[in-house]
Amino acid sequence: MDKFKIVGGTPLSGELPVSGAKNSALPALAACLLSDEPVTLHRIPQVKDIGTMQTLLAHTGARLSDTDGKVVVNAKSLDCPEAPYDVVKTMRASSLVLGPLVARTGRARVSMPGGCAIGARPINLHVSALEQLGATITQESGYVEAKAPDGLRGGTIHFDRITVTGTEDVLMAAVLARGETVIRNAAREPEVQDLANLLIKMGAKIEGAGTSMIKVQGVERLHGTEHAIIPDRIEAGTFLLAVAITQGDAVVTDCNPEHVAALTIKMNQAGADVEQVGPDALRVRSSGKLRAVDITTEEYPGFATDLQAQYMALMTVASGISFITETIFENRFMHTQELARMGANIRIEGRQAIVAGRERLGGAQVIASDLRASASLVLAALVAQGETVIDRVYHMDRGYERIEQKLAAVGAQIQRVG
Ligand code: EPZ
């Protein structure tokens, strides 16, 4: 199993290019199932989860080609509208094919995702929303079976709590449902907007994506198109924090500064200097000790839960005490024990982590528990004295493209060892 070996202490400098967004590419690939014409997607990141989604689409009968991030999906014939357990157990976002498959073929059989390191993460809201659109749903032997032989019909959906993939799943079903669908308390994430933009290019009728109320007028069918995926705001945020924690000076390029505004505001309050230096570029500089600043994770446009662990790494070496409150997932502090192995001083009280900043961290052997926790350990290792060995970096490969090459290019002493 691959590990990262990192020697800390080098201020990062240069350019860090951001790839396409994993969490936008996943629903975009699923959306290709909605049309019998080819769809071409650009800036698809070369990460493991994308490979898994491509395997899943091929399993349903779609044909795919992938050349350096340009993916063409031809879902002309879908003879197996199913997401098998073996695929879903490796990536819960596989449940994103539920809506498109039942909308396009009249049925779908999708394995239930099961538990995850960061929380229970059920898909009950996806299921009840699809029932609102007229699907008959049964659960058997760990699978959700959805049927709508006469097609779906529009309806009004109110999500009891905001769900990103739930909104995406239902949006993809509603575009082929007869009549109007209204989605209330919808997720406003940029990835939801990007999906809506793709669907509109395919001929869908959607209003209000990016707001908490989305209206959809169903259409008979969708046609093929070409679409470039938005930049990965979580990768951009991870890079901004990596430069700040090493007291470096670098430019994060090919990103959307607006999408990381909640983070850059906090970083500037902590004493870093993050400024926009182009339509898609942010310069980050940090010299000297940063101040402790509290955060609370929220749905977009609030502070992203997917940046909580990386931000915590920064606070472990800031001066003062910071309070980090996690409101989205019930078990997203797995990284704290590993940071403590590097000398961090963190106390957990329910959904809150209380971080007392230390003068410095020390290298150690640590284990990654999930995608964003692994990023937080890489950041801590970049500032720690001596060598850190991070095990199970396969977690990081799920969502970061060529991470060690990108960091090494700005001076990080990082290497992957088999
Ligand atoms: C998406 O997950 C992202 N994944 C996650 O990123 C991200 O952390 C999350 O949104 C929140 O921003 C993708 O886009 C592929 P939710 P999702 O449904 O859609 C509860 C990463 O690191 N809930 O918005 O699965 C749920 O348990 C990943 O890239 C239900 O109770 O998250 C959670 O507490 C990790 N029932 C909350 O809602 C449901 O049916 C929000 O989850 C659905 C969700």
Please supply descriptive tags for the structure shown above.
418 residues, alpha/beta, 4-stranded mixed sheet, 26% strand, elongated, binds ligand EPZ
Task: Provide a descriptive summary of the structure in words.
By secondary structure, this protein is of the alpha/beta class. 30% of the residues lie in helices and 26% in strands. The strands form six sheets. A four-stranded mixed β-sheet has the order 22-23-1-24. Strands 2-15-17-16 form a four-stranded mixed β-sheet, with helices on one face. Helix 6 links the parallel strand 10 (156-158) and strand 11 (180-184). The longest helix has 13 residues, at 48-60. The model has no long low-confidence stretch (mean pLDDT 97). Ligand EPZ is lined by residues 23, 26, 93, 119-126, 161, 163-166, 305-306, 328-329, 371-372, 399.
> Cα-atom Rg, whole angstroms?
21 Å
First-residue to last-residue Cα separation: 6 Å
Mean pLDDT rating? 97
Number of helices: 14
Cross-sheet strand order for the largest sheet: 22-23-1-24
- Strand-pairing-aware structural class: alpha/beta
Quaternary structure state of the chains depicted: single chain
Shape: elongated
Strand content: 25-35%
Largest sheet: 4 strands, mixed
**Helix share, percent:** 25-40%
Low confidence ranges: none
- β-strand number: 24
**Structure ligands:** ligand EPZ
SSE topology:
Elements: E1 3-7, E2 13-17, H1 22-31, E3 39-42, H2 48-60, E4 63-67, E5 70-74, E6 82-83, H3 85-88, H4 98-105, E7 107-111, H5 124-132, E8 136-140, E9 143-147, E10 156-158, H6 164-174, E11 180-184, H7 190-201, E12 205-207, E13 213-217, E14 225-228, H8 233-245, E15 249-253, H9 261-269, E16 273-278, E17 281-285, E18 295-296, H10 308-315, E19 321-325, H11 335-341, E20 345-349, E21 352-356, E22 365-367, H12 371-383, E23 387-391, H13 394-397, H14 403-408, E24 413-417
Parallel strand pairs: 2-15, 3-14, 6-7, 10-11, 18-19, 22-23
Antiparallel strand pairs: 1-23, 1-24, 3-5, 4-5, 7-9, 8-9, 11-13, 12-13, 15-17, 16-17, 19-21, 20-21
Helix pairs in contact: 1-2, 1-7, 4-6, 5-6, 6-7, 8-10, 8-12, 10-12
